[in-house]
Amino acid sequence: MTRTKLLGTTLAMGVVAVLLAACKPTFPAGSTLATSGLGPLVTITWPTIDVDTDKVVTEYRIDVDGSEIARVSAATRSCVVVGLPKGTTSTISVTAYDSAAQWSGDQATGIISATYAPPSTGSGSGTAKSCVPTTDTDGDRLPNAVETNGGTYQHAGATASNPNLADTDGDGIKDGDEVLGTTAGLDLPAMGANPVKKNLAMEFDWFDDNAEPGTCSAHSHRPTAGMIAKVATAYSTAPVSNPDGTTGISLIADYGQGGAFTGGNLIADADGVIAGGVGGTDFTAYKSANFASNRAGIFHYVLMPHRYNTTSTSSGQAEINGNDMIVSLYCYGSDQNVANTVVHENGHNLGLRHGGNVDTNYKPNYNSVMNYQYQFPGIDTNCTVPGDGLLSYSVGARASLNENALIETDGICSGVDVDWNANSVIDAAAVSVDINQDGGKSVLSDYNDWANINLAAVTNAGASPFGPEVVTEQPVPVSAQG
Ligand SMILES: [Zn+2]
Ligand SMILES: [Zn+2]
Q1: What domains can you pick out in the chain, each with its CATH number?
Q2: 314 vs 75, 208, 376, CA distance in Å?
Q3: CA gap 453, 450 in Å, rounded
Q4: What is the mean pLDDT of each run of 10 residues along the chain (482 residues)?
Q5: Contact 393, 451 (CB under 8 A)
Q6: Is 439 exposed, middle or buried (0-12, 13-18, 19+ CB in 10 A)?
Q7: Of 26, 44, 27, nearest to 35 (Cα)?
Q8: Closest listed residue to residue 128, CA positions, set 82, 80, 68
Q9: CA of residue 293 to ligand 2 center, whole Å
Q10: What is the pLDDT of residue 425?
Q11: How many CA atoms lie within 13 Å of 399's alpha carbon, on the beta-carbon side?
């Protein structure tokens, strides 16, 4: 109204050009620049700016700390700022141009501003400042413009992830959560999460105890850096391909080692022994008290007591296709035993069974740490049957073995003889032996564990009468004691 009246007066005075030039775009009184933080990025939203009735807005201009970073069309009133420095407060301003090429920004009423400070952790969003469209086709909270779809992850301004896939690397964690942190405040970027390379996240809580002074001295079940390194290597060397062209799975392990990893902790318990197992009252209470709720669906939870079920000699328990496990090695917690058992129990969480896709145990040609034959000694690397210390799941490369007609000169691989019937002779004729001692003879098959693990199973809810199936393990074998 004011503008129309002013315009009329102006025309009467015959100084049109002078006063039109003075009527620059102006934001309505009380206008604010709204910000919505996306970790290293921030979405800004502004109201329509007012212009004279004979003009239109042609574009909005975005500045950061007084320097122009982008212009967007007049139809746009929201965009995502990229390239702000980590851990530093930046001032973001929006101004406008009208169809008379007048800029609003040299008058206070033509500028709206807000501040934003990206987290100091994580990989930031690069140094190229821009304000990109908010369009997010796959709903992973990353604007399409930063999902550069190919190559290696750079930072939140160039993620290499696919704008049409919410979980580009298929690890069960959405691209936006891996790049920006979760909406529940879990700082996955600070932990090294990557949207184009598979991650596997595990939290370890442990007990200290002196439960069996006759067998072992006072000790802690806290993971050691050496044990964690063995687990990390087992996954990092996996023959699993990633969108960024690498192979392997990158472990995110929290055993309270500091930095971004403060979730793993000692659990105070008089004897280090818990009643019940996975999903039992003690397990549930300890998990509830020690596992941050914003890790649910992302982290596997590993409880490391001395024993569970009070007097059980079981080395562990785990959900199949789930997120919960117990590793309980009482007096036999060497790095190798613990690492192998962690990878075994986690294999159950990832959907594997003692025979891969079946429960059939001790198949000599199922060359996986999931097989009891190879859990503690590690898998076979020289075709002689006994394990050789390599901690891994199976690649499914071994030929089937027909227990009704075993060829000893074929062995399990590479033609290395195996004396299946233990008669101290490599028989020329086929022999019939129940080699996995399960009371019957059948065709035993290998299984490609690595091609079939389900990293997204971590999203399955914890054990309950209606939750995942739970596997209970054998005692630590005598060969692994000491
Ligand atoms: Zn113990
Ligand atoms: Zn098992």
Answers
A1: 2-132 (2.60.40.10), 197-349 (no CATH), 360-446 (no CATH)
A2: 65, 18, 14
A3: 6
A4: 45 47 87 96 97 96 98 97 97 97 96 97 94 98 98 97 98 97 95 97 95 88 98 98 98 97 93 90 95 96 94 94 95 97 98 97 98 98 96 98 98 96 97 96 98 93 67 93 83
A5: no
A6: exposed
A7: 44
A8: 82
A9: 27
A10: 97
A11: 13
Beta bridge partners of 96: 60
66 alpha-carbon distance from chain centroid: 38
Smallest CA-to-CA distance from 399 within 389, 407, 391 is with: 407
Q: For residue 315, which ligand has an atom nearest its CA? A: 2
Q: Which residue has the tokens 């004691």?
A: 481
Give residue 18's pLDDT: 47
Predicted local distance difference test score (pLDDT) of residue 470? 92
Helix (H) or strand (E) holding 228: helix 225-236
- Give the residue ranges of DSSP H helices in 262-385: 281-290, 335-349, 372-375
Contact status, residue 339 vs residue 255, Cβ threshold 8 Å: no
**And the tokens for 355?**
């025979």
User: Which ligand has the shortest distance to the CA of 216?
Assistant: 1
**What letter represents residue 338's amino acid?**
V
**CB contact burial 90-111 (16+ within 10 A = b; e otherwise):** bebbbbbbbebebebbeeeebb
Name the pTM for this structure: 0.91
H/E stretch holding 38:
strand 34-38
Q: What is the pLDDT of residue 237?
A: 98
Q: Report how far ligand 2's centroid is from the alpha carbon of 346 (Å).
A: 9
Cβ(351)–Cβ(322) under 8 Å? no
Considering only CA atoms, which of 60, 97, 244 is closest in space to residue 168?
A: 244
Ligand 2 centroid from CA 369, angstroms? 9
Closest ligand to C-alpha of residue 355 is 2
